[in-house]
Amino acid sequence: MVRKLDKWCDINWIIFICVTGVVTASLAAIFWDKLPLGARGAVFVAIIMPLHVLEEWKFPGGLHIFYNVLLGPKEEEKQQLDRYPMSRLTDMITNVGLQWIPLVYLVLCFFTGLSNAVALCMVLLSFFEVAGHTGAGIITWSWLRKDGKKTIYHPGIATSWMMFFPAGVYVMAHLGNVTGHDWIWGIILLVIMLIISIVLTETPLKKWVVKQEKGAFAFTDAKYYERYPSFWKK
């Protein structure tokens, strides 16, 4: 079972979210004029997320190195930078959640009065992606400029600025008659999404992963950060 899950966490899940993104984009193109604004925001997130994941994991990939250096153990003997605290399993669940929960919220837009709330939730998520990856880029630049790093580029920052940011701006520009009720529900929906996608999944699973055999759910290499071995190779 563990090996099957490990295989799913390699490339299969990325294919799954890419297919989901294509199907979502195709249906949205057909029914765009009938979609409430909140549903449009959810569509943007569901389409962008696979491209964002591809940048973080594959082209160039290497997000896990920054994450695990920043949030993992500082003692060298306790470090497992290839799978703790971020592993292929925890990041898979996080990103699938961040694609599929917005699609659940999309459905809510048709049956409740939460379209504006969902729109605000998607705006906040989009801007958080931009802020988070920009902050991470600044941190890595400050750490690695002595090793020749000249930019704040960080895996995920390009799709954040080129896709999440304009999507957030588009939704904000089309919002109308926003109430305090909309803001409260927008924040509640965001918190629910983050708790399900990150807190509830990552907290128990990251410890479970390191109890598995060596290499299970581990990233194979440092990708983008291969060029900065002093950053991660001990």
Task: Describe it.
- The chain is globular.
- The longest helix is centred in the N-terminal third of the chain and has 30 residues.
- 71% of the residues lie in helices and 0% in strands.
- The two termini are 32 Å apart.
- It has 8 helices and no strands.
- The protein is mostly helical and 234 residues long.
Which parts are unreliable, with pLDDT below 50 for 5 consecutive residues or more?
Answer: none
How many whole angstroms does the radius of gyration measure?
Answer: 18 Å
Number of strands: 0
β-strand amount: under 5%
Helix content: over 70%
Q: By helix and strand content, what is the structural category?
A: mainly alpha
Relevant terms:
globular
Topology (SSEs and partners):
Layout: H1 2-31, H2 37-57, H3 63-71, H4 88-111, H5 115-144, H6 157-174, H7 180-209, H8 229-232
Task: Give a quick rundown of the structure.
The protein contains eight helices and no strands.
